[in-house]
Amino acid sequence: MLRKLLKAMTQRLFWFAVFIVIQFGFLLYVVLWASYALGYYIAFNLLSIVMLFVVFTRSEKPAYKMVWMFLIGILPVFGGVLYLLMANKKLGYFSRKKTRMFLKTLPEASAFPATGEAPLYEEFPEYSHISRYIKNITGLPAWGNTECTYFYYSEEFFHDVLKEIETAERFIFIEYFIIGEGKWWGRILEALKKKVKDGVDVRVIYDDMGSINSVPGHYDARLRSYGIKAVAFNRVKLHINPRLNFRDHRKIFDIDGNICYTGGLNLADEYANDEIRFGYWKDNAVKFRGTAVWNFTFMFLEMWNGVWGGNDDLGLYLPSISFPSDGYVQPFGDNPFDESCTAEDVYIQIIANAKRYVWITTPYLVPDDQMMGALKIAAASGVDVRIITPHYPDKKTVFEVSRSNYIPLMKAGVKIFEYMPGFIHSKTFIADDKAAVVGTTNIDYRSFYLHFELSVLFVGSSVVKSVKDDFERTFELSELMTPERVEVHNPIRRFIRYFLRLFSPAF
């Protein structure tokens, strides 16, 4: 125990948490102390009333709004201050201006290869509304002329990435939630250094909180010393700030705008099971070659423009190769600053559209009321709804919340399995042998409301069959849960479980 404590005290995350807790405590003390003066007491209460009005009128999902209204209501002196500090999801003026300027640099439509929208709508009309929704919200179309390869095992992904890095001639764009010093990132980094010397434009975005314990502080400066353009997303600061909760959870490895990888995997050894932490780590990744890579390139450059700046000519990054169509592919992003929860809405449409079955893997099962309702309705309608979650958790608090959601879903007919060898980290949907979604978006509030995420819709693609094969293999290693197995009778543990569930939308 002492050894674990000493190890924790050497990590950045420990001291970050300590400083944040101290600041919250001090802020609470100051507010409560000031509220003994009638003027401050009235001012803090008026602020909370104003914040209640702001929360009520914002175009956000009801579950997220309700938990904040509840918090402000039960903490009228401190609630308004807390909301201002932790829940401001509006882009500033300069950020909005940069985004508008970036969009003006888009090439003319004639510069793009033909999209796959029209043939998708004709061949799979039952999924055309989902594809149209994605295009209307994100501006990113569906594509044909793309070859797709699904990786069942992490080691395959890492070996393939190293091979394709050698082919890069113009640029390599990398955007990951976690990069971790070790065997695999070390090999990738050496390959990137060689490419920089060859004149390849190498850029890296990593999430500072996600990588807080896997790379040293200001690791981006070290990467820049190698000639790599690098930046840490939302750098961890030892003070409370409204952007504290926002994380870049995307995974993009883009080579020359012609080859790209995404999925659940991060660039660290534990994802390849070279470092064992929670049993066997089950994950996935997909490789794309062809025109659909443009959507990834666009998402990366949009993020790069926001965190680094610059005035890239987007016409220089269009894909230059295409392949015979392997069905239809539509990569798309999601972010906490728009008025839509795009990934969740696509998930719900996939569930509602299913006629025979919908199978899901997610490391965290913390659905809001809309997602919960969609799952229950589908199961009660006779659709075979199955969800695979981990048996060994990486976050015990989230695991308790996930298990608290099992029983209401089971009662509606949803079958919930736990992956027994370890931790399943893939985020995958499949329905009726026709459509699948693979990406970075978990079924939880952080992914839906607070993270930058990406997902890929596959319709009529070989990836759909690969995903189904992966599910069937995984079911063989998973156990069906029953209410008796997950119900808790200890009143203290039951209280903790539902307390965490109550406040999960806020954080």
Low-confidence parts lasting 5 or more residues at pLDDT below 50? none
What does the oligomeric state look like here? single chain
Query: Could you tell me how far the N terminus lies from the C terminus, measured between alpha carbons in angstroms?
Result: 28 Å
How much helicity do the residues have?
40-55%
CATH class of the largest domain: Alpha Beta
Gyration radius, rounded: 23 Å
How would you portray this structure in words?
The strands form 3 sheets. Strands 5, 10, 11, 12, 13, 15, 16, 17 and 18 form a 9-stranded mixed β-sheet that branches. α11 links the parallel β3 (about 200-205) and β4. This protein has 3 domains: about 1-85, no CATH class; about 95-115 and about 145-325, Endonuclease, Chain A; about 340-505, Endonuclease Chain A (Endonuclease, Chain A), CATH 3.30.870.10. With about 500 residues, the chain is of the alpha/beta class. It contains 20 helices and 18 strands. α4 (about 60-75) runs antiparallel to α5 (about 80-85), α8 (about 130-140) runs antiparallel to α13 and α15 crosses α20 (about 490-505).
Short description:
The chain is of the alpha/beta class and 507 residues long.
Keywords:
507 residues; Endonuclease, Chain A; 9-stranded mixed sheet; 20 helices; 18 strands
Helix/strand layout:
Blueprint: H1 2-8, H2 12-34, H3 38-57, H4 62-74, H5 79-86, H6 93-103, H7 117-123, H8 128-138, E1 146-151, H9 154-165, E2 171-176, H10 183-197, E3 201-207, H11 219-225, E4 229-233, E5 247-248, E6 251-255, E7 259-263, E8 280-282, E9 285-290, H12 293-307, E10 328-334, H13 342-353, E11 357-361, H14 369-380, E12 384-390, H15 396-404, H16 406-411, E13 415-419, E14 422-424, E15 427-431, E16 435-439, H17 445-450, E17 451-459, H18 462-476, E18 478-480, H19 483-486, H20 491-503
Parallel strand pairs: 2-3, 3-4, 5-17, 8-14, 11-12, 12-13
Antiparallel strand pairs: 1-9, 2-6, 6-7, 7-9, 10-17, 11-15, 13-18, 15-16, 16-17
